[in-house]
Amino acid sequence: MSGFRARELEALKAKIAALETGGREESESMSLGDPRLDDRFLNRGLPLGHWHEFSGEGLEVETGISAAAFAACLAAPLARRGEAVWVLRRDDLFAPGLAGLGFPAERLIQVCARDEAEALAVTEDALATQGVAAVFTEVETVDLTAGRRLQLACERRGATGFVIRRRPYGGTGRKETAGSAAATRWRIAPAPSEPGPGEFGLGPPRWEVRLDRCRGGRPGAWLMEAPNAYGEAAYTYEVNDGTHPLRLVAELGDRQLASAQPLRLSA
Amino acid sequence: MRQLHAVNTPGRLAGLFVGQKATDAMALVPELVTAEAEPEADAQALTELADWCVRFSPAVALDPPDSLFLDVTGVAHLWGGEAALAGDLRARLGANGLPVRVAVADTPGAAWALAHQGEGCEIIVPPGEQIAWMARLRPSALRLEPQAAAQIERLGLKMLAQLFALPRAPLARRFGADALTRIDEALGRSKAALTFRRPPNPWFARLAFAEPISQLEDLQRVSHDVAARLCARLDQEGQGARRFELAFHRLDGKAHALNIGLALAARDPARIARLFAPKLETVDPGFGIEVVTLAASAVEPTAGRQIRLDSLLDAGREDALAPLIDRLANRLGEERVWKTVPVESHVPERSTAHAPPLSPPPPAARWDLGTPRPLRLFRKPEPLEGVISLIPDDPPRQFEWRRRLHRIRRAEGPERIGDEWWRIDIEDVRTDRVRDYYRVEDQDGARFWVFREGLYAPGEPARWFLHGLFG
């Protein structure tokens, strides 16, 4: 009987997937490094050929640093497969920092746009270009119309968009838009890191990652870190196959992880 | 009637001359060897010789059938003097089997006269002394009209010295104004005009309209048409160009020029017209535009590949990205589209540089991944207030930034970055201009890159700045 139910569930899932993609062929997906994460998605991985939204709270609204770092770690294998374009509003991305996280920064094309509309137009243009695999954008909001246009541009060539929501010059934002055309919506916040046993100082960068909305999947919250950042291993990802740049540390429930770390300084 | 076109020295010694009837010549010298004269080939050869002579002077003028004018004003010092220049010219041409006579003088007329009728193969006339040097030449050396020259000879004026001594007004009346102008040009009293040979720019297309146009759709259409015309010529030669200038010439004579640049040489008229399309709105047609011209520069050979947008196999990286880079660079400006290349420097803000996106990667440069670097680096480090640190050398325990208090839980450092003393004069190097960088993490997990500026001085409070943020 459970086999019957499982089969019914699979058939329903396939129907939903067909409705979601509107009859197009099955899309690729990129693994997130851990089966517990991949299970949340329809295709057992982050769907490529769509655009995803990453945002933060507090200080992150202006700096967008955790979202950018998480997106860069996530998309590093994608950026190695094809071209990568990063559209900025404020020119403060530091390439050695990207390289330290394992992202191929020497082939990254950066574009500095003058305002929101231009940044979205450039993103659409880059997504629709053959050969581009990943486009990162730092914009404030993406309303429904712009979101649908980005989705259409992604589908033309199968590129993946990563929208990092950021208000680089401060100030008060506009009202939050109700809907979104993104395939997934994430909220990223920094988390205290743990150095390895016997080591001093800071550990590998760690983030609290919440998946708020996922089309065809289930939301969740996790604690993830990038174990290979800031080392020689980060740069030789191609050699160590099988090691995903991200590692799942723990699943977060509704309660926060209590960080009762004693003061530890290192000089 | 066949005539002799040219005679060599043994032939001249045997009594042959140019213009002699061929039958007479054959009768005079039975073992004469003749060849067909080819005046067109001679003219072509002279043109090629003029193009070659550009190495001596940029201004070369043709004087058919067999002479060239080279304007060597200000050029002779490159050879170490006019004598050396003339010697080099004669040596090079002589080595290729072309004996020449060279004369260097102030004016073209004097140079022509001495080259054709002077004594010796290399004549250099000191400045201002052409009267003395030309005194013993015959009047035909002045390139006068044939009747004037014959009349002068008949009147018994066999040498130019006699001609120069005559008063000017009767000279003009007798032999024509042309004779007087020739004398004045030869002596430098008036300027002679020469038409110099300059290679034309072949990459130029022009369209003229019967009716002046001013509508935007018409401008778009004609820019496409003129681009198609120029690209057809480029296509024939297998070349592409990287810079295009489109000029609209208005009825009142003003011209409005638009420029575009491409990352890679191309000859696709649709792409060029599309790159011009946004700039057409800035053109003010006035009363109407009657001529449009398109000129291409930075022309390079390009491979004749058919670019198929739906084929993922053939297109190389440049073919796929170049249209995108061109669109972005022409719309936003070239300085807003870049890729980062590493620069060897310890100072963080100087360790990267912007490069054009499609340029080849520098061979030896690599990122220095020895120490962690932040993901975001501020252009100007922001000062921190309320910094508390235990001893002057320790990382901060807490600091205030943008009106938020951050308590530090973990820290790494210090990393000391000082002056790069090898880049500046040794007198300007100061050992107390240092920054001690710490990588700190606060209670929420936000990671910062802070530095303390300067060395510890007992009475002064230390100055702390925030330079970047880590992911």
Global outline of chain A: globular
How many domains is the backbone of chain B divided into?
Answer: 4
Total DSSP helices of chain A: 8
Can you list the strand order of the major beta sheet of chain A? 5-4-6-7-3-8-9-10-11
Shape of chain B: elongated
Q: What fraction of the residues of chain A are assigned to beta strands by DSSP? A: 15-25%
Structural class, from secondary structure content of chain A?
A: alpha/beta
**How can the largest sheet of chain B be summarized?**
7 strands, antiparallel
For the termini of chain A, the CA-CA separation is 63 Å
Strand percentage of chain B: 25-35%
Give the oligomeric state of the chains in this entry, treating copies of one chain as homo and distinct chains as hetero.
heterodimer
Topology:
The complex is a heterodimer of chains A (267) and B (471).
Chain A (H helix, E strand, L loop, with lengths): L1 H20 L7 E2 L4 H4 L7 E2 L3 E5 L4 H4 L1 H17 L1 E6 L6 H6 L8 E4 L3 H12 L4 E8 L4 H14 L2 E6 L18 E8 L14 E9 L5 E6 L6 H4 L11 E5 L16
Parallel strand pairs in A: 3-7, 3-8, 4-5, 4-6, 6-7
Antiparallel strand pairs in A: 1-2, 8-9, 9-10, 10-11
Helix pairs in contact in A: 6-7
Chain B lengths: L8 H5 L8 H7 L10 H14 L7 E4 L3 E4 L11 H14 L6 E3 L3 H10 L4 E3 L5 H5 L11 H9 L5 H6 L2 H8 L1 H11 L16 E10 L2 H22 L1 E12 L4 E12 L2 H8 L12 E13 L15 H16 L4 E6 L9 E4 L20 E8 L1 E5 L6 E6 L2 E15 L15 E9 L4 E7 L9 E8 L1
Parallel strand pairs in B: 3-4
Antiparallel strand pairs in B: 1-2, 5-8, 6-7, 6-8, 9-10, 11-17, 12-13, 13-14, 14-15, 15-16, 16-17
Helix pairs in contact in B: 5-10, 9-10, 11-12
How does this structure look, described?
The complex is a heterodimer of chains A (267) and B (471). With 267 residues, chain A is of the alpha/beta class. In chain A, 30% of the residues lie in helices and 23% in strands. In chain A, the strands form two sheets. Chain A has a nine-stranded mixed sheet with strand order 5-4-6-7-3-8-9-10-11, sandwiched between helices. In chain A, strands 1-2 form a two-stranded antiparallel sheet. In chain A, strand 4, helix 5 and strand 5 form a beta-alpha-beta unit. In chain B, strands 11-17-16-15-14-13-12 form a seven-stranded antiparallel sheet, with no helix packed on it. Chain B has a four-stranded antiparallel sheet with strand order 5-8-6-7, with helices on one face. In chain B, helix 9 crosses helix 10. Chain B is elongated, with a radius of gyration of 38 Å.
